[in-house]
Write the structure tokens for this entry.
Amino acid sequence: MGNLPSWIKSNDKEILAIIDNLAKKAVETAEALVILFSDLSNTEQHTKIKNLESEADILTRDVFAELNKTFITPFDREDMQRIASKIDDVIDFMDGISARTRSYKITTPPPYTLEIAKELVNATKEVEYMISKLKNIKNPQDIMTHCRNTSNIEHTVDDLYRKSIEKLFESNDAITIIKLKDIYETMETASDRCVDVADVIEDIVLKYG
């Protein structure tokens, strides 16, 4: 990494590898959501998503444990903690989406949920790409472009969220409105957390790129 001193401890690569693995879990979770919203009878996706969420929690704890025993870190300790926490949040919210569809006994994919789930795949893939480039920041502008991409995806999700709410309030069924609004809001929040990750990465690139 260009601007980092040569005396960085070797287990810094381990920290970045754990975060990279965490980002991959986020992509897997989003892809499982797409499968789920393509066919809500495919209940094994609930189990897969829950397992991925549990694995992500372990990886997040591993990041914090490694940071606590590493005197010199590749980036600011707080930045790395924020990245891990925010990616874990993304996965937590996607697990929450899965859990809500099951708890609320949703049997038909609500309007726009599949489209939003596909955008979550796009957003998590952007996060995964940016994390993979932190090991050696050779092209800061490339990472910044992907930060912008993540923000653009979030705008797309916002548009889909607004359309879904407009559609939802065409119904007179108050219970359905409450249930689906909760799901839509959780999906939007998952997208917002991807942008949070991109914002931290942008700060890192500006400091170290």
